[in-house]
Amino acid sequence: MIIRVIGLGNMKVAMGLMDFTQEMLRSGYKQFVFDLSACKGLDSTFMGAMVGLAAAAQEDNGGAAVVNASTDNAELLQIVGADKFLKVAGPYKMEDIETERLDAPPPSSERRIELVKKAHENLVVIDQRNEARFGAFLRQLSNELAK
Question: How many CA atoms lie within 13 A of 99 on its CB side?
């Protein structure tokens, strides 16, 4: 399955991505490719969602890869260690394919916090250096969920 990221790969987009890819995994999809040719930037929540998808796919002998990442996006993936978990390939000519925009209704406040927390936990699992980056944020999210 090809996932073309257009614009920003951010927390808002990650919410729909996480739900959509879980459904695709349940439907039997095992291989995922993120085409970042039109991606203007990535935030940590989106990168954590990408890593979570890769981990879930690998549990079923699948995987996830990234193609056409700009230098800046490739560097962001490297900073959080996602490049060691996602196969990052260089330029790849993608055929013109029919695409469908994923429009997901906004999640409830609690669901949004759970998804953001899970995405950042994914980043800590793959690279312990991310504990220093996101540990305080994760504790804050846990406190919010405990209320």
Answer: 13
Q: What is the pTM of this model?
A: 0.91
Q: Residue 24: pLDDT above 90? A: yes
Could you give the strand order of the β-sheet that contains 31-42, starting from the edge strand earlier in sequence? 2-9, 31-42, 63-67, 87-88
List the domain boundaries for the chain.
Answer: 2-95+103-146
Task: Among 3.30.750.24, 3.40.50.1260, 3.40.50.2000, 3.30.2420.10, name the CATH number for the domain at 2-95+103-146.
Answer: 3.30.750.24
* pLDDT score for 117: 97
Residues 6+ apart with CB under 8 A from 33: 1, 2, 3, 64, 65, 66, 67
